[in-house]
Amino acid sequence: MTVNQATATRVEQSAVVEARQLGLTFQTNDGPVRALSNVDLTINKGEFVSFIGPSGCGKTTFLRVIADLEKPTEGTISINGMSSEQAREARAYGYVFQAAALLPWRTIERNVALPLEIIGLPRAEQQERIKRTMDLVNLSGFEKKYPWQLSGGMQQRASIARALAFDADLLLMDEPFGALDEIVRDHLNEQLLQLWRRTDKTICFVTHSIPEAVYLSTRIVVMSQRPGRVTDVIESTLPKERPLDIRESPEFLAIAARVRDGLRAGHSYED
Amino acid sequence: MDRVRDKIIPVLTILAALVAVWYVAAVFMNAPFQRDLDRRAGETPGTIEFIGKTLSQPKPTMPAPHQVAQNFFENTFLRKVTSNRSLVYHSWVTLSSTLLGFAFGTALGILIAVGIVHVTALDRSLMPWIIASQTIPILAVAPMIIVVLAAIGVTGLIPKALISTYLSFFPVAVGMVKGLRSPEVMHLDLMHTYNASASQTFWKLRVPASVPFLFASMKVAVAASLVGAIVGELPTGAVAGIGAKLLAGAYYSQTIDIWAALVAGSVVAAMLVVLVGLVGKLVERSMGGRPA
Amino acid sequence: MMNSKPSWQVGLALLLCAIAMTTMPLLAAEAPAPMSSGTTSLIIGLIALSGVASFAMFSGVASAAVLFIGAHGAAWLLLSGIAGNEGMARMPYFLLLAAAWLLAWRCVAILSGLKPTSPQIRTFLRLLIPAIFGAWILIIWEAVTRGAGIPFILLPPPSAVAARIANSLPILAADVRQTIFKAVLFGYVVGCGAGFVVAILADRVGFLRRGLLPIGNMVSALPIIGVAPIMVMWFGFDWQSKAAVVIIMTFFPMLVNTVAGLAASGHMERDLMRTYASSYWQTLFKLRLPAAAPFIFNALKINSTLALIGAIVAEFFGTPVVGMGFRISTEIGRMNVDMVWAEIAVAALAGSVFYGVVALVERATTFWHPSVRGGRA
Question: pLDDT at position C5, please?
């Protein structure tokens, strides 16, 4: 059903996420804090969009607004033409958190099965999807292990498998590799790109690493803090096929420099 | 403002609901006996009058809250504290053995904890027994301690205090072992790099780290100590103390007295726990702890 | 190995042996069944030889084994020598007992220092070391009560308590049936169940939770056991009144712990369930209850002890002529102290078994929790 709706919207316009004049103000003990302000953004089908900016710039908040984990106080957001709440109820996206957030009392397999159980899929289909997604993230053979028996990188891969098991076209990832060491991170970045090319999903990816953002994305959204807003949107000119050593190419470095300038500009604006 | 809305109002509402339920229960539980009385007296009171009567029986099955409150107030504030009927007097008797036992128990618990943390043989041999002994209904020993000690001429405060000691040393020992072991490996390594002696590590690292644990377990211990003192008053037909008051009330079916004694016991318990908590907070603050 | 170096325990034990030898005999002259000089020298020989031999051993295990045999052999001879000679022991008897105990201490110290690689041996040591400690409490208790002739009503020797247990199994069984299988189990199940249900209710209704939680916390510090006389008045002398006390005592720990446990699942996990558009009950059963399991088991363990205490103490306020609390209070009135100890031993055993069963179920269901699997968080 989700897929059909998504296809229907793609026929008219290929926008998966559309934010118009989006703003969000938190009420805290120290008074109101403006986390997002005047965000206008359209994310199209099949894009890989990274959000980058200093801590507290609202990039995670924006992702949470898409996921209906926060309600915007101004403006509108639509996902596949639906409101964010409808989209959540239609299970239109998979979400990957900063930490793997696997349930320690379930095996990897049963962790991946969790969303499928909640949707209420029949057992056979659950099995089939688990097998498919475990293959996608190269975790076959670890189905019966418990999360705490795996390394941090493998745990995060399992949580990606869990988000993919849904078969939603939109994948929201909030600094999924932030807690991992650089070597594991490179490896997972490579795998993520392969996965994206194979599945043709739309991915929104929050990070604070410039190389990661440039390496992964087709578009990079640079944000600045207080109030969180979009200061620059950079289209990547890199090809879809990206080996790791593309990061030494002049083209890559040029994009990275633009991102860095954008970040710096956002910062000086603040001072 | 938020505190009033989020804490005080819900608590007061629930308490009010409990009192209301209590009144209703009192009417229903006392009704059969009241009907009996009225039948014998040949009276047929109206509903309101009947309810009023159920709430003012001298020995009700379920005393009404105001009866308990009145009894508690009279016996606490209106009697001389030396009077045999004064709740202050009975509370004091129980409180004194509670405090004595609590002091012994805490000292013993700390001593054992220090031993366990520093002597591996003690840790391996004694610790399992301390944990196992938590599973044993220790209060069952209480009557025997009282009677046996009375048989050899030890009566009064000491036997009850012994029971309190026994009950309060376990939580302190266990909590203190946890506390003395709570410093992080990194801090212990730091002391190691300073070539600090065992006693320096103990006083400068382990003791300060254990303070929150000590006070948390002392709160449990003081409550247990009070229970020990009350139960210690049960088997001998003791003449004074909250336990004796409960027993006498049960013997003469003075239900209102029982409830008032329970209220007195609860007030003492609450005061003790709050007091220990307060001292704990003061100590932690003076040690530069973060105010929570 | 450094384990077999001379130690102060063994040195002191040898010194005590020497003093004992100069102050012979072990028992008073009028003892009806005096210990033969052969037995006496065997005891001294065992202690001295195993002590010295423990220095000479090249491995810790070997010297521990030698000490174990020496200490317990000597203890056995000392205990069998005192039988029939109650109250006749003289100072050297206690000196030798102390010497044997020092050897056992040294043995435990060596065993505690061992770091075996095989998990089976580790488990064995974890059980053996406290077992030696417990055995020595019994040995010293037995030897001192018999040797010094401590009045029977003050403290009966463990052997007398054991004999009493063996002789009154039917009575003890009837008491256990009355107190544990009726009052405790019924009260425990109902009390814990009610606490759990109210906790779920409080979880759904925020107002109820904010009101109930402070009250629940406060109540857990109160001497609830005092409601026993009231319950006896309301529900009669039989087990129902005891079960009522147990219900009240177990209700609040369960309530407070379950509410705390339901708040224990992480924000991220709860957000995750939200992104699945999971219903309240799905989130409860798939995430929050499993995450609360360690807290719930904590309450179940606390309550296993509380339930037993509640039922036994409530029986002090009146029972039919059966039940553990009843037996304790009446037998102590008749000065049958050994029966009281027998009942306490049974209560201790029942308490440990009860706790043990809960702990085993806990290990099986919360195997994933860091405190159970002993790993990193």
Answer: 60
Gap between the Cα atoms of C177 and A226, Å rounded: 70
Provide the whole-model pTM.
0.82
Question: Where are chain B's structural domains?
Answer: 2-62, 87-286
* Residue B45 per-residue DSSP state: -
- The answer to whether the bond into A227 is cis (omega within 30° of 0) is yes
Contact B135 C305 (CB under 8 A): yes
Q: In whole angstroms, what is the distance from residue B280 CA to residue C259 CA? A: 25
| ipTM for the whole complex | 0.82
**A20: helix, coil or strand?**
strand
Q: Cβ contacts (< 8 Å) between C374 and chain A: which residues?
A: none
- Domains in chain A with CATH codes: 2-92+170-270 (3.40.50.300), 103-167 (no CATH)
Single out the residue of B165, B161, B158, B167 nearest to residue B140, CA to CA. Answer: B167
- In Å, the largest CA–CA distance within chain A is 58
Percent of chain C with pLDDT over 90: 17
> Which tokens sit at A68?
């209906």
Select from A117, A97, A120, A119 the least CA-distant residue to A109: A117
CA distance readout (Å), B151 to B159, C155, C332: 11, 12, 11
Question: Residue A177 carries which DSSP code?
Answer: T
Among C267, C274, C276, the residue to mutate for chain A (most A Cβ within 10 A): C276
CATH 1.10.3720.10 fits B87-286, yes or no: yes
- Determine, for residues B14 and C304 on separate chains, whether the beta-carbon distance falls below 8 Å: no
Kindly state the average pLDDT of the residues C50-78.
84
Query: Of A269, A271, A260, nearest to A52 (Cα)?
Result: A260
Beta carbons within 8 Å of A7's beta carbon, 6+ residues apart: none
| First-to-final CA distance of chain B | 19
**Helices B120-133, B87-118: crossing angle, 10 deg rounding:** 140
Those of residues 227-256 in C touching chain B at CB distance below 8 A are 227-230, 232-234
Confidence tier at A266 by pLDDT (50, 70, 90): low
Residue C2 pLDDT level (bands cut at 50, 70, 90): very low
From CA A40, how far away is CA C360, in angstroms rounded?
A: 57
